[in-house]
Design a protein that fits this description.
binds inosinic acid; binds magnesium ion; about 20% helix; single chain
């Protein structure tokens, strides 16, 4: 039987092996950069970042904490950030004095992340760095300096490995391009 996602999938952009190889490289870099750090907090931005967080966390060998935060931009469709961002769910930990590494699935306009950064900076973490699996640089509306990037990708709608197509198919082990590059609510 054909899988339900196949009708939506134009091509596999990054297969499972390539994803995992790159995540191992990022983890090695993080292991080096935070070698002497004993209060590292991986802060996952829900929901898209969850697969990336769990794989990355298992490859980071220095002791660390994890926590979760959900943010969304709203007003326009899934593809277009309106510029209004809200925190749907705040993290439970106090970030003051901790070394925070934000873990995101994809940076598009950058509006969501820049709002999250501002919110966190007000809480005085010891340091704040950003790690994104995917980066759509050509879509950027606000400048963001990413410390760790998995893959730079073109401006196409992608899903799988945490990213949704109409809230589904986050569980796919690869990142795929949507057929016709059509976002689900277009
Ligand atoms: P930004 O505020 O425009 O950077 O929006 C980033 C968020 O939009 C990501 O965290 C995703 O949740 C979502 N997003 C952006 N591009 C895609 C895509 O190609 N597929 C799935 N979700 C996406
Ligand atoms: Mg996200």
């Amino acid at each position: 039987m054909a899988h339900a996602y196949e009708a939506l999938l134009a091509e596999v952009l990054i297969d499972e092996a390539r994803l995992q190889r790159r995540i191992s490289e990022l983890a090695e870099q993080i292991n080096r950069d935070y070698a002497d750090c004993d209060d590292l907090l991986l802060l996952c931005i829900l929901k898209g970042g969850v697969m990336f967080l769990t794989d990355l966390s298992r490859k980071i060998h220095i002791p660390h904490m994890i926590d979760f935060m959900a943010a969304s931009s709203y007003g326009v469709g899934a593809r277009q950030s309106s510029g209004s961002v809200r925190i749907d769910m705040d993290l439970r930990m106090d970030v003051q004095g901790k070394h925070v590494l934000v873990v995101e699935d994809i940076i598009d306009s950058g509006l969501t992340l820049s709002f999250v950064i501002k919110t966190l900076e007000n809480r005085e973490p010891a340091s704040l760095k950003l790690c994104a699996l995917l980066n759509k640089q050509s879509r950027r509306e606000v400048e963001i300096e990413l410390d760790y990037v998995g893959f730079d990708i073109e401006n196409k709608y992608v899903f799988g490995y945490g990213l949704d197509y109409d809230e589904k198919f986050r569980n796919l082990p690869f990142v795929g391009v949507a057929r016709g590059d059509i976002p689900p609510d277009a």
